[in-house]
Structures are given as structure tokens and as C-alpha cells.
Amino acid sequence: MGSRRLAQITLEYSTKKNKAFLIVLVVILTCFVGISLMLEKGAFLLAFNEYQSLTLDVFFNGMTLFGNGVFLIFICLLIYLYPLRDQSLRVGKFTEILKRGNWKLALTSLVLYIGSGLLIQIPKRILKWPRPKKFYDDTFTELNLPIWTKFSSQNSFPSGHTTSAFAMLIFFALLSKRETQKYVFLALAVFAGISRVYLLEHFLMDVAAGAFGGSLCAVICNFIWQRKITPKSVDIKKEAVL
Q: What stretches in the chain show pLDDT beneath 70?
């Protein structure tokens, strides 16, 4: 079977198995955009801020890590070091792990994170829209301020954390063969986006734009992975039992 035909079959299979998931994703993105357009800027943030509590502070500070650069690079490292499920690879055989690590998926994930991050910087630097701290200015301190948050002032639109979270997690969801895992990744991405509003770092429209941009990057990356990388790679399942 030719490599082009194999790539086509792989892509068709990926699209078919992810059809329901992609529909759910589009619905969620539509809700994000629709709500942000219907409401006055800051209305969702102010309403959400009324529910501030220590429990939610801890929860959303945890969720926002899925858009944190250091955390995502650490995830890429884990992908590289733990790809094969080979029981024969012990800590003492670190050089063997390095040689046989799943470097293609780790590198693809890293490039996706960096690429989506750089892409989102363009509108950020051009628009330079104020974040909630500067937007509300003197009245900002009257809000319920969550703990462990360093409030930024500029470059609000779009949300970089949301873009990174959706790019990486939606890409992982598209690669996953388990339906449950797909929606767990999606839920984590959604919570990561909402955390940016809860933590008073972004408005809902910033999150909506970041979610859309990150999801688009993930879909494109999945297309490249299925069309260009996977067909030319050794089958992961076969490689895992070597």
C-alpha cells in the first residue's frame, strides 16, 4: 500500500472516530462566542466573581496550570519519557529510554504549544486591550480577589493560557482512542479557559477567542499528524511491545 493511500486511510479513520467529539467541541465554542457577544463586556466576569470562594480559588488555580508554559513543557517531557509501557525499561536504563522515547509525539506537542503561543501573540501585541485590572482601574480592588494570582494589566485579547490549553488538550483528545478520555481532555480545556475569567485575568471574549484559536491549531496539527507523521512512523502499538 502506497504511503499516500495509507495517509488518506489514516486521516479518514481519525475524522470518523472523532466526528461526535468535534460536534460537541463546535457546540461549546459556539456557546463561548455566543455568550460573549450577547453580554456586555465584563458582565460574565462580574457575575462569576460573586461566587468567589477559597475552594474555587484552589480549583481554578489548578485548572489554569493546563495553559501554563512550564507545565505544558513538562507534559511534553513526560510524553517523551513514558511512551512505550515497556516493563523492561528501568530507571537504570535511562539511555535506552532516551533512544526509544516517543520523540515524534513529544516534539509535535512542543511545536504545537510554541506555534499556537506565537500565533496568538500577534493580535495581543497589535490590539493591546486592557485586562480586567486596568479596565476596572480604581474599582478593581472592590471585587472579590482570588488568592495566588498576580494580576496583569495589558494584552488581554485573546487569552494565551486558553489558547495553549485548548491547543494541547484538544490535540490529545483527537489522538485518544477512548471516548471517555476525549471528553476528559475537553473538560480540562474548558475549565482552564473559565479559570482565566474566575482569576480576573481575562474577559469571556478573550477566552472564547483563545479557545477557538487553540482548537483550530489542534485540528490542523492532528491533520498533519495523521497525514504526514503517523503513516510514515512505526506503529506505536507494535513499537510498545518491542
A: 1-15, 82-101, 229-242
pLDDT of residue 161: 96
Q: What residue spans define the domains of the chain?
A: 3-234
Supply the pTM of this predicted model.
0.85
Domain 3-234 has CATH 1.20.144: yes
Q: Give CA–CA dist 8/58, Å, rounded.
A: 45
For the segment 136-173, what is each residue's pLDDT rounded down to a tens digit? 998 999 999 999 888 999 999 999 999 999 999 999 99
Quick one: cell of 149?
494570582
